[in-house]
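Work Package 4 report. The design task specified in the project plan requires that, given a folded chain encoded as structure tokens, an amino acid be chosen for each position. We show below one input record used in the internal validation round.
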């Protein structure tokens, strides 16, 4: 339990807005878990919630009140604040509560305090305030930057949050609300940290924290609590065909922020609802959370539940999986293990940062050394089942973004071209394969232009062949 001295110091800091309630609660909880418990002021300083100058000011105000309560002479304050400016009297200080009730006002005794609060301007904006605004505005991302206005990406465009500009210290205080003490230590040591943040009643957020020249920044991406459906994403129902595969490799590709992770999640959710299989996912961090439906779903985070993607994939082959989901095919070892898993009778779903189906195949092949090219081409031609490449394109009214897809299903003719090093000819098969569910990205964009959802000007920005939309 906190001492009366610590409780009083916390109340003074909270009243004069040197700390937020969330920061004070986190500090007192950490204090209670430590043996021996350090003074609250020292802990607030260690957590960088307050500065050394602010701690001295708080200790002076605390001593003045305690001296008055005990009948002793209070230290002579520098320019004492008039008593009329202080809040109404309250009983002797009690331990700081773990959570402040809604509408409760913390009252401080009428004791003299120093007139000037060092660096008294503190942000009253919390991380939850910022992320709530992002969810309400249906933003795809929210940016918190030191020494710059906060921004939200809506309809693919960054727009300023009307919250003013925050100092590096204020931004750091806001960011720390989303990190545990252990995660804060990792961020300080590594200067980069990716995490998944859960705010009850609001949702999940994929978070990326990093340091730049002005201080710490963070980018948050809202993730719905439940995996999406194809219809909710505006995707064609024909993609449900991807859930019919029982073995092989299916890749979801596109630039960052193109929605490929959401499309992958929709397919995984379909599998979870329609089969009785064992699904293992390897992600960094875990984004969508899958509850048990028909399948058993085990989700592992690289760096937290397993050392790396490669380690998790090697272990997965011994864990009797039917379906393996890989958050990102990052390197040679991960790609090689994914192909091996697909060849040995598993369904493997993964994502890649590539722009279209043919480049995806070439990227998978090119990651292997020249002496393995013949072998890997044969393996990919046999194991690859489909490639879905997508973009999110702003609509004509600028209110939202709609998906444009390139879809390749691997038929025997496509497998032959992969083996014969003629992947450039796959495009002609896709042009004539609409009956099999295949489509080129530019054809998908053209359909959006015809229906009036996308303007020609925007279409030119995203098309493989801009001249087609002149």
């Amino acid at each position: 339990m906190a001492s009366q001295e610590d409780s009083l110091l916390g109340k003074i800091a909270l009243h004069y807005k040197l700390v937020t309630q969330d920061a004070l609660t986190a500090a007192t909880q950490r204090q209670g878990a430590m043996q021996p418990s350090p003074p609250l002021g020292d802990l607030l300083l260690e957590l960088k919630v307050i500065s050394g100058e602010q701690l001295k000011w708080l200790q002076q105000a605390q001593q003045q009140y305690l001296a008055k309560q005990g009948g002793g002479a209070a230290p002579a304050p520098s320019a004492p604040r008039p008593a009329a400016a202080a809040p109404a009297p309250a009983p002797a200080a009690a331990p700081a509560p773990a959570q402040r009730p809604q509408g409760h006002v913390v009252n401080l005794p009428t004791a003299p305090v120093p007139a000037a609060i060092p660096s008294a301007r503190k942000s009253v904006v919390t991380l939850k305030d910022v992320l709530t605004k992002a969810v309400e505005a249906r933003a795809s991302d929210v940016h918190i930057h030191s020494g710059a206005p906060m921004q939200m990406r809506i309809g693919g465009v960054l727009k300023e949050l009307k919250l003013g500009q925050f100092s590096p210290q204020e931004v750091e205080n806001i960011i720390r609300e989303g990190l545990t003490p252990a995660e804060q230590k990792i961020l300080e040591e590594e200067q980069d940290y990716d995490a998944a943040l859960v705010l009850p009643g609001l949702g999940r957020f994929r978070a990326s924290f990093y340091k730049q020249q002005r201080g710490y920044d963070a980018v948050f991406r809202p993730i719905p609590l439940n995996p999406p459906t194809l219809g909710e994403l505006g995707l064609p129902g024909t993609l449900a065909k991807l859930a019919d595969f029982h073995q092989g490799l299916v890749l979801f590709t596109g630039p960052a922020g193109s929605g490929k992770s959401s499309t992958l999640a929709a397919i995984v959710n379909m599998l979870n609802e329609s089969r009785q299989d064992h699904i293992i996912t390897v992600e960094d961090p875990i984004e969508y959370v899958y509850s048990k439906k028909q399948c058993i779903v085990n989700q592992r985070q690289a760096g937290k539940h397993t050392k790396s993607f490669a380690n998790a994939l090697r272990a997965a082959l011994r864990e009797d999986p039917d379906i393996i989901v890989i958050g990102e095919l990052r390197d040679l070892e991960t790609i090689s293990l994914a192909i091996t898993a697909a060849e040995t009778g598993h369904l493997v779903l993964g994502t890649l940062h590539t722009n279209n189906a043919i480049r995806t195949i070439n990227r998978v092949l090119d990651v292997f050394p020249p002496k393995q090219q013949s072998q890997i081409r044969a393996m990919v031609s046999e194991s690859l089942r489909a490639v879905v490449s997508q973009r999110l394109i702003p609509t004509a009214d600028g209110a939202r973004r709609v998906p444009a897809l390139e879809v390749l299903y691997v038929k025997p003719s496509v497998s032959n071209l992969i083996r014969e090093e003629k992947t450039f000819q796959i495009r002609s098969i896709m042009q004539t394969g609409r009956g099999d569910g295949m489509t080129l990205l530019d054809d998908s964009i053209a359909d959006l232009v015809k229906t009036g959802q996308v303007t020609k000007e925007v279409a030119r920005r995203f098309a493989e062949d801009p001249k087609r939309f002149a």
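The chain has three domains: 4-85, 127-223, 237-469. Validation will be extended to a larger panel in the next phase.
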